[in-house]
């Protein structure tokens, strides 16, 4: 035990000395592993072995780019002999446009979940995601992104308000204000929950006996948005802001409450500047005690299936992190890097913990707070649809009420756990997509498996495994599937291979990120 | 050695061959079980313009109060059909809660608890489903019809696990279509045209064999949920179960009486499901968040609500189901008695109304009281756990029963401090 602590200290010291150089993701990765290993040792838990290359490849593609790899990617990666190929893969995937698109979808869901929940709000989706996509494509520093969102241009002249939506597909951050009905309390609640990890909205109506935040503090934060106004009653109403307004009357109450930061500091007001500007500066300041922690915890939760503080947006004294020192290390490294999200993800992608298999190899691996084996994560609607398209070879439609749009509605994640619903199972068993994918004349992948000349039957089965599960079948699986195909009798090959493909696409292994 | 171990695990966990065959038949359930239907008014319905009218007071607004079938119980004028059923209903006018945020109040009313760190509280429907679903039933124990506006956490079975999660129907499309199903059918229940039942059974067998190892090696919510959803979906695909959702079985005149809209047809579906042993059904009606233009909006909502609810009570009675089916009308909070400058009413948890009726409820009365302005509860304040404990008693569940939670601590169906409202129980 003492030796382990010594190791941790040495690593920390090394990292501190090197702080002037550009940040090294491997150094942070080592520090993360040292913290996790110390805890595993203390709990006498045994870490699972590394995932094999195919398991790792599929996971990295889903986490970083939001869809499974192509069979071509699978064969290339399995053949690659480079000892450093996993780190290289993560770095390369972070550079792809797909990565920006995937993260835009994730942050869209986090910042404006109303877009999926309220049908009238759906039209805001593409412009808001387009705006986020631009930011992630340029690896915009996280603090800059948040400042741009919180200080988005809104006309200070009520007679010349800003349209919330011009052309729906143009990049536009104003969906954030529009779908929250330009209400100060909604904007304050989301800002503190998403960017600071604290749920001050629980204090909207009254002081909670067990929570740290008071009702006044909630309205102090809301007051920064008090000047934002919507013209008209619809979601598409134009927006303006009375920038001199820095106080608000609580919904249940009479006394106006002034704008004040959550740490009770008094803002330094600039002339002719929106109160959102000092708020954004305080939220994203390097010394803000919440900002970096909330961000690293969210990204950690995305990659490991569970935040160090869980739920990821519920930092409270009575909901402590599983690894407090690790959270501090990550937050500091992230802030020191200039809030570089790619640096953070490169580090996470290099950890031993991220490389572990999700299969249980020891009874001590079931407590998810130990990260002893990789969590099995659900897929978002986007991840599932895009993976389905890739596996089956369908041409993807876009736009409202396209197959993708319908799929996203049905497969919107439910609850905080990765759950599959009955209607989802029915869609995957009986729906049009799956019927087409498993019928020869409408399925590019099945056609390739059945009609490529000169393949052994085992190779035809292999094509389906590579397409759907991004790996080769085991010996046992190969035999089982070959027997199933031959049991169908002559002339039934396409139908039986269609059944095999149906089984793979309906399996938990396809439906989950493991 | 390794193979043996794997196989033993598979048997222990029951993962091999876990999908039942489509051909297997369901067990019979002759004895009548008690059930609950919740009419969920998303957004927070105004009490002043429905069940706690304040005629003559500045807060009262333009609606008149009318007499009902229960002597002395007066309600607002736009629920005339419900008024005729009032002897089966008990109005509770003294809800006193604290949450004025939609999300938190919804979770509070639907789980009986406020979010507490890592505890993953189940919604009440899932708790009832766990207690009351007949063994071997092909229909889920909790069906949620058109739960528009409900966040995902408000539909979660939480620590009870995915087998008690609701089957959600009626979410497709934005509005009610005029097709015969009312948009309430379970989509994709039927097999694809080129797939026979025999072929589907072969596929299901192959699926359960080939993923047993993956599932066994990865215990946890994600895999359990996948396995459970497929099991439940396959049961639902059996013709008898699927038939429950086919409203074209019903008399056209009856369907007209419920109202040819999603909520009306949803109430009819609720009766069909309860008749087939489903213990908990909720039907959602959204649009109650009337910050602006409250009176016009509420009048419109009542035109949907009134015939559907009144017909549901009458129809349950006609089918001999009213004595065993408790019907609850509720939202997440009430609305301000004061009228805002936009002719709207805002969120108000301090003093509001819910209505209980049918099985286990002593109807024909109003319980609890607000003052002349409607601002405060004057008599018999009721907290959320009190309400849920009352429903438990009405449907024959012990609210103090414990379930093991995800934090390895037993948690009661309803908090122990809850006091059921004895005077509304029959």
TrEMBL record, chain A:
<protein>
    <recommendedName>
        <fullName>DUF1553 domain-containing protein</fullName>
    </recommendedName>
</protein>
<feature type="signal peptide">
    <location>
        <begin position="1"/>
        <end position="20"/>
    </location>
</feature>
<feature type="domain" description="DUF1549">
    <location>
        <begin position="32"/>
        <end position="229"/>
    </location>
</feature>
<dbReference type="InterPro" id="IPR011444">
    <property type="entry name" value="DUF1549"/>
</dbReference>
<dbReference type="Pfam" id="PF07583">
    <property type="entry name" value="PSCyt2"/>
</dbReference>
<dbReference type="Pfam" id="PF07587">
    <property type="entry name" value="PSD1"/>
</dbReference>
<keyword id="KW-0732">Signal</keyword>
<feature type="domain" description="DUF1553">
    <location>
        <begin position="276"/>
        <end position="394"/>
    </location>
</feature>
<dbReference type="InterPro" id="IPR022655">
    <property type="entry name" value="DUF1553"/>
</dbReference>
UniProtKB/TrEMBL annotation, chain B:
<dbReference type="InterPro" id="IPR017850">
    <property type="entry name" value="Alkaline_phosphatase_core_sf"/>
</dbReference>
<dbReference type="Pfam" id="PF07394">
    <property type="entry name" value="DUF1501"/>
</dbReference>
<protein>
    <recommendedName>
        <fullName>DUF1501 domain-containing protein</fullName>
    </recommendedName>
</protein>
<feature type="signal peptide">
    <location>
        <begin position="1"/>
        <end position="26"/>
    </location>
</feature>
<dbReference type="InterPro" id="IPR010869">
    <property type="entry name" value="DUF1501"/>
</dbReference>
<keyword id="KW-0732">Signal</keyword>
